[in-house]
Amino acid sequence: MPAQAGSRGSGGCRVKVSSIGYVCRDGIRNIWRNKMMSVASISTVAISLFLLGFVWLFITNVDHMVTSVESELEINAYIETSYTRDQGAELSEQISRLPGVATTSFVTKEEALIILNGRFGADANLSDTVGVYNPLPDLIKVKATDPDLVPGLAMRLENTAGIEMVRYGKGMVERLLQTADWVRRAGLLGLLGISVAAIFLISTSIRLTVYSRREEITIMRLVGATNWYIRWPFLVEGLFIGVFGSVMACGILYYGYLGLAKYLTENLYFIPLLSDMEILINMGLNILAYGGLLGLIGSFLSVIRYLRV
To answer: What is the pTM of this model?
Structure first.
């Protein structure tokens, strides 16, 4: 009987083991009794979490693309022609010990010519074109420990004795880093906005359910039920609404993303789309947990407001 749940005062938020079955059954019964409102709430939550998951996937893929590009960022430091081959190799060793340098690679002008020839295709034969005189200088390829260090490291190499010229995609690298940072910030704001909207929608749905059962709640109070004994079924209802909505959203995202990934792989193969299933599964589990949490928060805000002593 509700009167056994505790005194009518604050009563705490604890629920007896014997009451857990009642709480869960009553939460599910609330959803079934208000089928139209529940379906609307679940659908709305599913749409909200779909948008949230879409933004999440977008941010993750942008990070993946940026990381792929950043991993290929390198500085080409061209050695002065007056330096001998041994001096160039020694200079490469010195640069490798600089702070912020991950790796260095000494490339002779003969190797550079072969690399350049490969970019022009199999029909190109630059060795015969240039003849004995190879105009390319020896160079040192430098990779930084952090992409953000590339501009500063390039500037330091420009002032290093023996380095004639430095190339690293100046301007493009800075824009890339700024764009990536902007996308991350915008994505986080999007996630926050969608989360707030989902909480509001769930809270509104639970609030209507509470209002429709106001007479039943009044009777439960009269027979001695605590506020928390009354609140728990509504919290369970909000949890189920969030979980059901997140399951729908995850299903749409999963099949939609697989279709998009297949299309891009076949038509735009140069876009490095994220394909690690472990990451995608973890993301789906996070969305599922996030949906349940949003449901709890939304229902909690509603019942706390409308079931005060």
So the answer is: 0.59
